[in-house]
Amino acid sequence: MIKPRKIPLRICLGCSEKKPKRELVRIVRTPQGEVVLDLTGKKAGRGAYICPNSECLKKALKGKRLEKNLQHPLSPGVVDEIIAYLEAQERSEA
Questions:
Q1: CA distance linking residue 37 with residue 25, whole number of Å
Q2: Which fold has domain 9-93?
Q3: Model's pTM, two decimal places?
Q4: Coil, strand or helix: which one is 17?
């Protein structure tokens, strides 16, 4: 009998819903201290997850949940990069 494969779940920092890791966008603070968007989900460092929509990002930024989870302040450039990526994702789905 084949055992079903376990699907890793993560919590979105915006809406606080548990979702499969593959459905979420990972933002990582690397060991060098920079905050980047991790599209592969495998970069080394402390990760935070949000749903791929701009509403969840706005909620996470408003409550400073992203900064608290990454234990690092976010620069405006990183926030702009994440917003641009999420808007591109939303346009491609529509």
A1: 8
A2: Hypothetical Cytosolic Protein; Chain: A; (3.30.1230)
A3: 0.90
A4: coil
Q: In what order do the strands lie in the sheet with 25-29?
A: 35-38, 25-29, 46-50
Residue tagged 């791929």 (tokens): 52
Do residues 86 and 24 lie in contact, with contact meaning Cβ atoms separated by under 8 Å? Answer: no
Nearest one of 47, 43, 54 to 79, comparing CA atoms: 54
- For residue 86, what are its two tokens? 């999420």
* CB half-sphere exposure, 62, CA atoms < 13 A: 8
Q: Rounded to a whole number, what is the largest CA-CA distance in the chain?
A: 52
The string of pLDDT tens digits covering residues 35-73 is 999 999 999 999 999 999 989 999 999 999 999 999 999
Domain ranges of the chain: 9-93
Q: How many CB atoms lie within 10 A of CB 29?
A: 20
